[in-house]
Amino acid sequence: MTDENRPPAIVVFGLDEQRRPRAGAFPADQEGETAKRAQAVTFVCKPVTATPELLRMAASVPFGDLAKPGAAFVPIVVRTLYDRLLAASGVTGSPGGGSGTSKMSASGASGEKRPASWADIDVGDMVLVAEIEPGDGWYEALIVEKMGPDAFRLKYRDTPDFPLVVRMRKELGLLPPSS
After folding, report:
1. Could you tell me which residues come within 8 angstroms of residue 166 by beta carbon, excluding any fewer than 6 positions away?
2. Tens digits of per-residue pLDDT, 2-15?
3. Where in the chain is the domain with CATH 2.30.30.140?
4. pLDDT digits (tens, 9 = 90+) for 119-128
């Protein structure tokens, strides 16, 4: 039986050394080894029954893989899932990734530039980008290059090692303006 066919008993989450959000679910029979590995990379390890919200969220957390080294045993996830896990578990700050807290939060990083309208979109702005396949979701991305009057090259905020994407102005979403 694969891990995906067993119910998750614990969730592990934290920021890796590159401050990328990671979260993984693990079955009960891997609890001991998972807890040791989570402690080694300073990630949070919680039983899914720790809070009602965590129990509800457990099904949306991808399964981890104890065969992978270091923090890679916990998959990279989108920032919104990571932030929801933090809130649901009652953890404050950002576990893992060294000391301190994350520079980015669900409400945006300090100094993050957000355009007030589609006409204002330019290099250096944080916007929303939809995945190509319908239903795959929207993700925050930084505009790194203007390729024409309405075409932009973007870098995903939470997974900067992913390939850059190109989107037209009409394919971008606006975030609430920074306050």
Report:
1. 147, 151, 152, 153, 154
2. 455 678 899 999 88
3. 118-173
4. 989 888 889 9
